[in-house]
Amino acid sequence: MKKITFALGAIAFASLASAQSIFSGNVIKNGSFEAGVTAVNGGSVVVPDWNGLTTVGEYGPATWWEVPFGVWSDGNKFVGGGNNDLNTINQSFVIDAADFATIDAGNAAFNVSGWFGGWSSQEDFAFLTVDFLNADNSVLSSSVIGNVTAAERNNVTSMQFREANGIIANGTRSINFTVTFDRIGGGTYNDGTAENLVFSAEAVPEPMTMIALAAGASLIARRRRNKK
Ligand SMILES: [Ca+2]
Ligand SMILES: [Ca+2]
Q1: Ramachandran quadrant class, 106 (left: phi over 0; alpha: psi -120 to 50; beta: rest)
Q2: What is the pLDDT of residues 93-137, one digit of tens each?
Q3: Where in the sequence is the domain holding 153, given as residue range(s)?
Q4: Which ligand is nearest the CA of 184, by number?
Q5: Residue 73: nearest ligand to its CA?
Q6: What is the pTM of this model?
Q7: Closest ligand by atom to 182 CA
Q8: Domain harbouring 148, CATH code
Q9: Cα(107) to centroid of ligand 1, in Å?
Q10: How high does pLDDT run on average in the chain?
Q11: d(CA 36, CA 24)
């Protein structure tokens, strides 16, 4: 039942979002979670640009969560799971028609990155799922980053950098970004955390490279013809 409600919400949001070039820098809005309010004691709040409620924490030893500032800090805030066993927030990006040809030729490379962590020795964790959708909102392919274990954090409250690279699937017309928080480590709070989420794409090869390659190929062809 939870899954159905989430899917309908994502579609409704996608229809409202206006199209934008996928080649315009980081397309995840409020991926640093600096916009909006800080939650009190792990309560769920609205996170601007994201669907769904979750908790927003602030760095510093004096705050209730005791997540310290670190190399993962982009500003003063981060997101976490709050008082939920399993929680998600999501946003959708609609791709401008001007990018379709590049994507459908398999020439749109992406990089997705972020910082993910948890609290102390607990295994609560967070991850980002990137779903590439066609015009019918069917998932063509997905990329997942996160899932940092307590051992990978040396049982210290912190976050680690995770990234993935790939080619945007042929036929992709929109992208859904979903952050999932899982309280498998127990306790009251879902301590999975995420911060500084970035998704960017570039055309490969670059247009000038393609022109140079085409020019080189025709030159070789002419030389071969001349030898005959
Ligand atoms: Ca931040
Ligand atoms: Ca916990």
Answers
A1: left
A2: 999 999 999 999 999 999 999 999 999 999 999 999 999 999 999
A3: 2-227
A4: 2
A5: 1
A6: 0.84
A7: 2
A8: 2.60.120.260
A9: 31
A10: 89
A11: 24
